[in-house]
Automatic annotation (TrEMBL):
Positions of the L-asparaginase N-terminal domain: 3-189
PROSITE patterns hit by this protein: ASN_GLN_ASE_1 (PS00144), ASN_GLN_ASE_2 (PS00917), ASN_GLN_ASE_3 (PS51732)
Enzyme class, spelled out: hydrolase
Family affiliation: Belongs to the asparaginase 1 family.
Active site per UniProt: T12, T12 (o-isoaspartyl threonine intermediate), T86
Protein name per UniProt: asparaginase
Classification via SMART domains: Asparaginase
Amino acid sequence: MGQVVVISTGGTIASRWQGSGYAADAAGGDVLATAAVPEGVTVRVVDLMSVNSARITTAHQIALLRTVREVLADPAVDGVVVTHGTDTLEESAFFVDLHHDDPRPVVFTGAQRPLEDPEGDGPRNLHDALLTAATVRGLGVLVVFDGRAHAARGTVKVQTLAADAFADPSGEPVADVSADGVVVHRRPERPAPLPVPAATGPLPRVDVVMHHCDADPVLFEAAVAAGAQGIVLVATGAGNATPEICAAVEAAVARGVLVALTTRVPTGPVAEIYTHGGAVDLAAAGAVLTGTLRAGQARIAVLSAALAATDPAGRAEALRHALAAPVPATA
Ligand code: ASP
């Protein structure tokens, strides 16, 4: 049925007991050995790294993106599976999705239970990811977990421990996946891909600051002072903060910092409704509203925009492009 390359990066799916807790240490071949390979699918493993995903950096994500592209340079390959820790899977998946320009799928998966757990969810998730990678086309980057395939864009980790770890709280799954096959329900809308970042060179600092009762601009301004080229403001409600934070946003934007606005509410878009420090004023101060993207993926959009252009206007345009999703996925 197809040739799939598994890129192994670590996570709980590759984790063993270390004496005091679990950590990723298994190679991709050990992870693959736990799963049933769908009939007719051949698999090759690339061991990129083996880390807990809370330790993933921009440099890792660029290396992963470039590895995906190297693998897909071989026309005999039908699809790619990335095994990844669930903690930051949504960030790496969205980063690859924003730069992915191939109809062949890249399917991220992982596990909530460690490698050798007899009740582990890794074997099923990996089987389903292999099946999806071997069969679908034109859906961009997917997250396959607990019998469902989700579009990378908008999907977040919604459970700390339970098996149904991923969902798009503001959208619907792309497909159901079972031993019988993949049933596609919708085709995600994706913008044209951003240019692939260079393998080396300075990486932009992008920080995340959350608003709350009592919050003043100190942490936001500390991010600017630390050299942040982008900041994601995680506001309350539909995207609201205070007049003092609006002033800090305006000053940061005037210095060329790319500021994006999301919310700490789990579901729904940010919207320009309120003044007196609300999203109306934050937008007027230069913050870019990120629709239904939550903090981790809003940060990836800002990071990708900062990698795509060097000047503030070019970065703001690249961010708006990354957020707009105007072009349907190629079939
Ligand atoms: N700590 C793990 C990680 O690498 C959690 C997981 O994979 O589920 O993200």
